[in-house]
Design a protein that fits this description.
The chain is α/β, with parallel strands linked by helices. The chain is built from 13 helices and 16 strands. Strand 10 (224-228), helix 10 (237-245) and strand 11 form a beta-alpha-beta unit. Helix 2 crosses helix 5.
Length: 389
């Protein structure tokens, strides 16, 4: 029996992924894997037998990813599983930024009790909430991954002129884009020409905290509408408040409320609803569970944020899953050590990314615990698991 610890309430659809060989609960002991959503794990010390953590969502700021890599704990996320939900909220944000919908709804509530006069008051007061259409307007999409590409394509279908920017645009991502989406290589070209700007990039504190700040805002068109359904920290809140108060930015729609922007006129704070749909929660949960199962049972690594993707078809009844540092000659040292234990290698796959690497080794016979202890003496090896199929 394998144990899976849930650190948040997870959609019950995961029960369709985990077989009866798994005990999935919020209080299981010595978990082989952990699945969570927003639980903060920075003070959470995993058990020695915990091999993986899966976040049912894209962001992993609540997980000490680097520390877990050093422990040999693979951390997964679920990129793209909530993409449609976020895309739909961004489309709603486009409307909220164009027309004073929220203001008008609040105003209508003040008419309660006016009886037969409501209709007349509505006709008299509605001119205070006139807006503009998005048809024919120019939308800039910063980041053309799973969400950004969907936003770009949907905005194109709504009749907007769409410009995208992504210095790391993959071939796969490019193929997802409508041919009508113009991809530019210079961010300033997008920033200076768009009526609406939306961001879909990961938040990396050391690199892009305050990505949208007074200097970048100064390059934008007067009256631009800015949408942030990516991460609150990507925007300098003090600078955006100044920009909105001066009308440089017509509206800022943010899915990450903060005290300094709540209640500011022409700033709309949404309570982090980007992925808050039943479908998105189910999709993320299923994807996270499948990745956990594949790693625990097969050693395959897909969508890890601290180890490289490494997938290999099963060719023998026994497999070694080796997590190690990405250092010179370590693969030769690993194969030599396996051979030194009298074990024949049938198939092997090695992938590296940054400081870490994964090596999957299919062998012809079961590897003893004593041999694994010997292999762990190879400099740079972090963790070894033996899987029997």
């Amino acid at each position: 029996m394998k144990n899976i610890l849930t650190l948040n309430t997870i959609s019950p659809v995961i029960n369709n992924v985990f077989s009866t060989e798994y005990n999935v609960s919020a209080d299981c002991k010595n978990p082989d894997g952990i699945i969570l959503r927003s639980f903060k794990m920075h003070d959470f010390v995993p058990e020695e037998n915990t091999v993986a953590v899966a976040r049912a969502g894209a962001g992993t700021n609540n997980i000490p990813v680097e520390e877990y890599a050093k422990r040999g704990v693979v951390v997964f996320n679920t990129p793209g599983a909530n993409a449609n939900a976020v895309k739909e909220l961004v489309i709603a944000a486009l409307m909220l930024g164009s027309r004073k919908i929220t203001d008008s709804i609040d105003w209508v509530k003040t008419l309660k009790g006016q009886g037969d006069e409501v209709g007349k008051l509505v006709e008299k007061g509605k001119s205070n909430f006139a807006g503009q259409e998005i048809l024919g307007k120019k939308l800039g999409v910063i980041g053309l991954g799973a969400i950004g590409a969907m936003v770009a394509n949907s905005a194109d279908k709504l009749g907007m002129k769409v410009i995208g920017y992504d210095p790391f645009l993959s071939v796969e991502a490019a193929l997802r884009l409508s041919t009508h989406v113009q991809v530019v290589k210079n961010l300033d070209e997008l920033i200076s020409s768009c009526d609406y700007i939306t961001m879909h990039i990961p938040y990396i504190p050391a690199q892009n905290k305050g990505f949208i700040n007074k200097d970048m805002i100064a390059k934008m068109k007067d009256g631009v509408v800015l949408i942030n359904c990516a991460r609150g920290e990507l925007v300098d809140n003090a600078d955006i408040v100044c920009a909105v108060n001066s009308n440089k930015v017509a509206r800022y729609i943010c899915d990450f409320p903060a005290d300094e922007i709540i209640g500011v006129e022409n700033i709309i704070c949404i309570p982090h609803l980007g992925a808050s749909t039943e479908e998105a929660e189910d999709n993320c949960a299923v994807m996270a569970a499948k990745q956990l199962v594949d790693y625990i049972e097969n050693g395959n690594v897909v969508n890890s944020v601290n180890y490289p993707t490494c997938v290999m078809p099963v060719t023998t009844a026994h497999r070694l899953v080796i997590l190690h540092q990405n250092i010179s000659n370590i693969l030769a040292a690993i194969t030599s050590a396996i051979g030194g234990e009298g074990i024949n290698i049938s198939n092997l796959s090695n992938k590296s990314r940054g400081d870490y690497a994964v090596t999957l080794v299919d062998v012809d016979e079961e590897v003893s615990s004593q041999s694994i202890k010997h292999l762990l003496n190879v400099d740079g090896i972090i963790k070894i698991r033996a899987i029997k199929f």
